[in-house]
Amino acid sequence: MGYIVALNIILPWIFAFAINYFKNDFITNISTFLLLPILFILDVFIFKFNLPVILNTPNWINLLISVYDVGLLLYFLIQGINKKSVLVTMLALIQIVLLFFIFVIIKENNIGNIYIDRLTVLFYFIVAIVGIPIAIFSTKYMEYDEKRKHKFVAIIVWFLGVMNFAVSVNNIEWFFALFETTTLASYIMIGFRGDKEATNNAILALWMNQIGGIAILLALMIMIKVANIYHFTEIIKLHNPLIIISALGFLSLSALVKGAQLPFHKWLLGAMVAPTPVSAILHSATMVKIAPYLILRISPVIHNTLLSKLLIITTGFVFVVSSILALREVYFKRILAYSTISLLGLMMLGAAVGTPVSVVASLTLIVFHAFAKGFLFVEAGILEKVFHVKYISQMRRLIEKAPLTLMFIFFGFLNMTFVPFGSLIGKWFLIEEAANFLSHGSYIILILYVGAGSAFLSILYMKVLGISVRKSHNIEKVTFVPLPRRFNFVSVWYYLWLLTLAVFIAPFVGNILVSVAKDIVVGIYPIKVEGLSLILGNSTLYFWQIFIALIILILIHTLPYFVKLKNVDFVHPYNCGEIHKKYIETYDFACINIAKPYIIAFSIALFVLVVVLGGGLL
Asked: Which of 144, 164, 209, 568 is deepest in the core (most CB within 10 A)?
């Protein structure tokens, strides 16, 4: 078992080293393709073990991690000095001081530093099935007007191994090391192009995520001093976990920062300046997914506490306002980024509620969001490199230029809003669960959050698609632009996975995700499966409803190709019968800018409340 887990972490690093060392197209391409089946098979083997298990590690690895921690923070310090960033420099110094204090007070114990449960394996699968195709996509994407292809692909592959390691650790000091390694990865990838804008945004991502690292170190200090523990499994076993509630508050703060929740959303928006595969990997398989993962790890302990309720209010607020802020955006990738920030809030909301049903809802959102965002950012990369489209204003009549790519984008958007995809299933579960606790104010507001946020996201997606599917009457035939095989492979890969998961949503959620949730939260799971129908309490999603929904969905995202407009010229009555051109624009929602400063101020207040009141610092 231990060797298979180690391979799952180390193999991406070995492949990344080979890709960067040889700098050969054949080795780069074959390595990324081989890694997909290899990691998938390893993950299947791990899933078949009797989980969960705690694995011990040699003492030298613990020493190596500690040395690595110091070296990483010194690197941040040097970068802060070299880039003349006072914030990066000061935050690195604070981290170094806190880390050395932890080294002084920490006491060795015999608890295993690696913890593998079904939640860990679920993230392994996401890294393999969603993350590696992005590396495959990168091998072709970087051939379009980009430099240092092999180094870039190597960084992407290395990052996948980092994510696998991060979700495997039980030792929170180790988790800090991996948390800050993802910060390092974001710094390198966002600044990859090396221009001024890329460098500035990389620095922004660095110092913002350093705040999350400081929060983890403060949590570690409190846990060690108060309860002499520093492992996730020991937190769950505490008879009175409220004695470390302040530590749990700081851990929650680190999750909110890594999940780019307002007001820390700017670092994720800034990542848009990097090559598009960076956005794809950050939003889908790695980086920001650490945020809901961390809340899920502490979910049973914070359930029904003030911290939990404040997290519900904070993440729910972000879910709604991020979808509203996205409405004013015109840059396609920023629209996708805002929707990620929004849905990350909903994932963490489900984890913070901490009941069996809400945890399953959070897991469902995590999985389907990973596939959808990987899919959508890949299509955004294709639009950028093949069709030279970056802004939604450039997407007019896209159906006539890139019908296949638009079909995939349409499918990805419908995945975020339509039955029977997981995003809607997750929202259904949350509303059903909140309805059982209507006597609690935080649960009432949960229902309002889910309804309002879902509505605004639907408006957002339809706004983009409404521009794209417009056709001109003088186009009789759609011309398909041939795309590179690797682009088609990745697009079809995501499309088929989403379609398959939708058809088998009942057994996937009711059997697989429920089994994952049972490793997180102990309790009664009122989720059942009958054939291909999904049952939650007294509500049932029948397979015939799923089937009809899929038929409608297929029609929705294919019919626009067959629409032909003839004899539809507009004639102005006072223009002597001449054709009068009409221009119709989607409402730009510019008025939202007025409210943005107030939204940010309120977000900051909620962050403070989570740590101060939720963490019991007052």
From this structure: 164
